[in-house]
Amino acid sequence: VEVKIEVVIPEKERSKEEMSPNGKASPLIYKVNGTARHYHLEEHPIASNPYHNPKDVVEASVCHVKDLENGQMREVDLGCGKALLIKESGEFHAVGHKCPHYGAPLVKGVLSKGRVRCPWHGACFNIGTGDIEDFPGLDSLPRFQVKIEKEKVYIRASKQALQIQRRTKMMAKCISLSNYNLSSTNVLIIGAGAAGLVCAETLRQEGFSDRIVMCTMDRHLPYDRPKLSKSMDSHPEQIALRPKEFFCTYDIEVLTEMQVAAVDVKSKIAVFKDGFKMEYNKLLIATGNTPKTLSCKGKEMENVFNIRTPEDANRVVKLATSKNVVIVGASFLGMEVAAYLAERAHSVSLVELEHVPFKKFFGDRVGRAVMKMFENNRVKFYMQTEVSELREQEGKLKEVVLKSGKVLRADVCVVGVGAVPATGFLKQSGINIDSKGFIVVNKMMQTNIPGVFAAGDAVTFPLALRNNKKVNVPHWQMAHMHGRIAALNMLAHGTEISTVPYLWTAMFGKSIRYAGHGEGFDDVVIQGDLDELKFVAFYTKSDEVVAVASMNYDPIVSKVAEVLAAGRTIRKRDVDLVFFLSFRTGDMSWLTGKGS
């Protein structure tokens, strides 16, 4: 018996002549107050389908059929690239071996019930189709056809597919964009972050061929926002989620530097700050949040930053090099910025109200271990205090005065004290907003207004993991999933959200991975060694594990995420067994409930 694997990748592009439904590669323009505004950037052709060339195909023997047991994965080399070979329920499957998000080796991930989960950030891919099923990331895996002959496994694959290791799902295009009234659209998406982009892409993937317009206050097309604090000197084009030609090819129109000032849900009209009005049929609100600012004297002086854009991040790095930096707030953003600047700045000081960083999220013990790591990297903490005044010299920041009386030298100040939902423009709209400003949605991301959906950091939604408690989960992965669910339900699929929150933070070359929703946890069970920064923390509420965090113990967070995604409960008394089976024996049977 042999196994052969052959690439099966959907045709991604048409010829250059078919690329634009208008017959031209020209941008749409409308004028407001005499100012020309472009819907589309200059259109460029994307390479046509490369998989029809026989010379591009490679075939190689990779293993014997008995080399893999059920539930096992193997990374196999075809000479010009690698694939991931999987055996589950007696069948072989083969897909790309790298996660399209950040390139994690999927062979180190978690295989369970027909999908593989990334060990780094939790994205999930169907092993039969390669399709992405949970996030983060936008692309799917290439799928390779498997054949069995004479007890050997052969893989037949496109060389280019093996090198690219990602696949964009087939998408529809707008049928006749040139016939539309420029002030009217079928779908209007307010916000161009992960939720907005995934919504637009999902609509096209599902065959939606009517007009889609995204609008954003930002000057850039959608970009990888987590990198603003993790990789601060990245330029916008380096962190773009899609190249500009992608939006033109699939007729996803993007209005940049455009702010919606009000929404009339009865007339289905969005009113922009500059007076332009746009009618819509379906609306997605994915405006994210707005950073909180300091309330003290001097808060608006030069060199005081909320990092909101690539330009903000780039400017901070430039100004902080060999200078004194004060960061206010031991939030994820504040801590990541401190870690990034520690080797570049002359000094980094961090001011925080709590007595340890991340106390509410990771707990006291993990927070102390992280704090020690920062102190070992020259970051100075000023805890249980806050800023009372920012002082200037010749118009620029010179000192940060704390309520404790301490005065810190400061050339740059970065503020990371939290955020509020960017929903102020909806106050008179009739859309249900809670007391904290979050948009209230159901499991299908629908608001109380028919045809109006909301997604991302600005919403509260029922989380199945916590008995459908309404929660706000401002995570990058969750924004992706919200956008997908909203799109499916715009198309009346009736799909309810079902996902496990997953996040990560990166500091000094180390990552903490986290899955679940630990809000209100009452105990933390630690496995491993906090001093060595190699640990797993299980967060429990009553007797139930509600979240898990780890450092240097991959892929346990992805393993636990799969358990929770399957609807299984991990009790506090089972934590020792879970840890033992995961790392001492390598036994994965507890994932599917077949073991004890």
What would CATH call the architecture of the largest domain? Answer: 3-Layer(bba) Sandwich
Class by helix and strand content? Answer: alpha/beta
Query: Could you report the average pLDDT, rounded to the nearest whole number?
Result: 88
CATH hierarchy class name of the largest domain = Alpha Beta
User: Helicity range of the residues?
Assistant: 10-25%
- What's the total number of strands? 38
Q: Classify the fold: give the CATH topology of the largest domain.
A: FAD/NAD(P)-binding domain
Assigned CATH superfamily of the largest domain: FAD/NAD(P)-binding domain
Distance between the termini: 34 Å
Number of domains: 4
Q: Specify Rg, calculated over alpha carbons.
A: 25 Å
Domain Rieske: 60-155
Protein name: Apoptosis-inducing factor 3
InterPro entries: FAD-oxidoreductase/Apoptosis, FAD/NAD-bd_sf, FAD/NAD-binding_dom, FAD/NAD-linked_Rdtase_dimer_sf, Reductase_C, Rieske_2Fe-2S, Rieske_2Fe-2S_sf
Subcellular location: Mitochondrion
Question: Care to describe what's here?
Answer:
- This protein is α/β, with parallel strands linked by helices and 596 residues long.
- It folds into four domains: 54-164, Rieske Iron-sulfur Protein; 170-292 and 420-500, FAD/NAD(P)-binding domain (3-Layer(bba) Sandwich); 304-417, FAD/NAD(P)-binding domain (3-Layer(bba) Sandwich), CATH 3.50.50; 509-592, FAD/NAD-linked reductase, C-terminal dimerisation domain (Enolase-like, domain 1).
- 17% of the residues lie in helices and 32% in strands.
- It has twelve helices and 38 strands.
- Strands 1, 4, 5, 6, 7, 12 and 13 form a seven-stranded mixed sheet that branches. Strands 14, 15, 16, 17, 18, 19 and 31 form a seven-stranded mixed sheet that branches. It has a five-stranded parallel sheet with strand order 21-28-22-23-24.
- Strand 34 (502-507) and strand 35 form a beta hairpin.
- Helix 2 runs parallel beside helix 9.
- The longest helix has 15 residues, at 476-490.
- Mean pLDDT is 88; it is low at 1-51 and 591-596.
